[in-house]
Amino acid sequence: MDILVTKRLTLRPPLEVDIDDIAEFIGNKNVSRMLARVPHPYFRKDAEDWISHVSRSIDAGQDLTFTIHRERLIGVMSLEGFDSGVPEFGYWLAEPAWGKGFATEAGAAVLSHVFRTRDVDRIASAVFKENTASLNVQKKLGFKLTGNGALWSNARSEMVEDFKTELTRRDFVAAGHSLGAFPSPLRGGGGEEGAEMKKRSRGNILQAQHFPNHPHP
After folding, report:
1. Fewer Cβ atoms within 10 A, N terminus or C terminus of the chain?
2. Which pLDDT band holds residue 209 (cuts at 50, 70, 90)?
3. Listed residue (6, 17, 27, 14) closest to 207, CA to CA
């Protein structure tokens, strides 16, 4: 299991303990209306099915998905379609976590991990044009606009205009991000620092269990 630890966040693969939080936060229309695939209303069974699907895709090496935690789960971030050669980056944050820089912090960790551990030089994404906050996150991560289009939104039951974006390894580094700043505490990081990271990650997972993507923007 890959676990990433940043200054304020812990990121790990989805677990069944996350089901209630996912259903609650992505069931908020303000969140789901900015996503392409997520229906509204969104039920607990939808979260159960999604976690089951994600677990299989992670095991197959096709996708990489992380739940984002502070005191509890606050979002999801993923890259899908590694077998295509150009994975797609997507994410969502719970509304109470908006405007605090968490998406950029989590994105820097996940993308650094991907560029460091996978044979990937280019990552694609898309953002609904009205979602300026998400577009700003991607710009901070180094994404560049590549075109315009439209995506079907299940939550809105209509086509929504979007921006197509792309990130290269070079642009990620040029935006000021490191390829080695976020080791997986369960797989890397030795000595006292590694032990402390493991302690932090275990603590955050226990907190997530105590407070009992989709992710495409």
Report:
1. N
2. very low
3. 17
In tens, the pLDDT along 185-206 reads 454 333 343 344 444 444 433 3
| Structure tokens given for 35 | 């996503």
Which backbone phi and psi does 99 adopt, to 5 degrees? 75, 15
Do the beta carbons of residue 164 and residue 130 sit within 8 Å? Answer: no
Least confident interval from 53-62, 98-107, 131-140, 155-164 = 53-62
Q: What is the pLDDT of residue 13?
A: 96
Cα-Cα-Cα-Cα torsion 190, 194, 196, 198, nearest 10 degrees, comes to -120
3-state SS, 86-150, equals CCEEEEEECHHHCCCCHHHHHHHHHHHHHHHHCCCCEEEEEEECCCHHHHHHHHHHCCEEEEEEE
Task: To the nearest 10°, report the CA torsion of 175, 178, 184, 185.
Answer: -120
**All residues at 6 or more sequence positions from 132 whose CB lies less than 8 Å from its CB, including other chains:** none
